[in-house]
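Hi, here's the filled form for the chain we discussed.

Project: internal
Contact: R.S.
Residues: 556
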Amino acid sequence: MTEPIRPLILVRGFGGPDVTDEQRSPYQGFNDGTAYPGKRGEDYIYEGFLLRALKSERYPYTDATNVIGYYSRAVKAPPDSDGWEDDSVSGSVVIAPSVARRALDRGVAGTIWVYRYYELTPRALHTYGEGLVRLIELINRAAKRRDEEVAGVDIVAHSMGGLVVREALEQLHQTEKHSAGRLIHRIVTLGTPHRGIAFQRVPGWLLNLVHPVRDARDELRAFDPTRTDFREVAAWFPIRRLLTVVGTDYQSYGNGAASLMNRLSSIVDDGSFATNRSDGLVKQASAQLPGAPRTYVHKCHGGPDSLVTSREAYEIAMRFFHASHHVRLWLSQADVRRGGDWLGRSEFFFGVAVKARYVDFDLFHQSRQAENCYGPFARRGLDDPVPELADELAKPLADTGDDTLGWAGPDRLVWEGWIDARAKRDQTLPDLVFRLNIYVGERDSFGVSFSDNVIFEKQYYVQAFPGDDMRLYVHTGDEYLGERNHRTVDELDDLARSESSHGALARVQRMRPATDGGWEFDVGGTNFTATLRVAFDPDSESDIYAEEAAHPASFR
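And the returned structure, exactly as it came back:
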């Protein structure tokens, strides 16, 4: 790495009414992973976020969790404070000098810290936010002792942990405007109910009546779907530096009652029980913030192989924190050439799944099973007027209707993601490759015909050669993309020229410059044709701020 790795803070989710087990858990669940029997190598065992980070060759972290002590009552400074200021080693969130001497002997760069907020009292989000602000402050003090410059910490927060982070952002902003953006580099939330939980409307008298539910009443109130305080996040922190990871696999979640309640809530939104659109607990529409980038993963809220225990969370977060490029995909034009019932009412859906070469997980996932494809569209060009996503996400979750399946952004934005081109498995290959699985489906919402027709489904491979003279190609197969049969750009140009008469069916297309920026390519077959546009830009904070300034309505 050419620059130091920023400190990383992990924040757990809701512990339930009784948090005794959470207080006894040393790493708050971030040491739990998932095994995939029948697979081999790296795809066999995902060892958990924490252990994966400690073992990483590309982003090597060291454990600093024990450097901080968390106490329900303030503690006094120890006799030997090793030169730390008294207010760093006394209070409820304190430095342990002897541990700091050993764990931080190389500084705070590349350290990982699990925030144990359930040790603090009183049990309230305000308390947890204060503790997180204090943790960030102590990390910066530790850096200052060694004359290190910390360009902000990174944060990964699961479920309610994202609400704890939001509370800290507000407190930082109240103390000093815009300080959160200076002290925090980027944030990833995993299944955080930013807009509440659809069925969580517990009367205040009930929260005060039942013990130990009474102890968790402040946390439970934060899940109220009528709240709108999530709108303020963009005022506290640059919203484009907060990535929301949205789970879609409600079927694998162990809490059947929660899954049923989410399906019941669909009556208000869709007028039927037909959809669930959640990770089993948190609605897809709730796990997003207006103006914040998002990605879908087909994982459930918690437990084995979930948002927090599967490899997706780690890989997506690392790419976001250490990005070299920002990738975006738009649908420029489309034409659905079959379907459409005379007696029923046909509706079309469009979705993609994105996977990088040599990995066994999606960076972005849309599918019929995930219930998150864009649509429904009545027009065959998939160009129906749809509400702006940021506007829809600014509404309370409790409002009737769920119009959050419009495009991800302006100009029919389909997907945006972050990658680190320097972290390739095979450094001898000069290119980057992504597989796109494109899906177009149809349903008859009147029930006269079928509700699950597949109009089109096909895989394409996007190949990029980064550099000053960037070239991009799209393939219908992977025969020229492996180590054994890799082609140079000149050879690919020859192949593309020989295939030019086949249009969208060409085995290799060289992408053409698009008038709106980026590059265009064609996809399709008998039933569907489309032109997609991709942008592949170097990532920088300045680009994010410029994007916000140019399109403020899209981000706030």
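Let me know if anything looks off before we file it.
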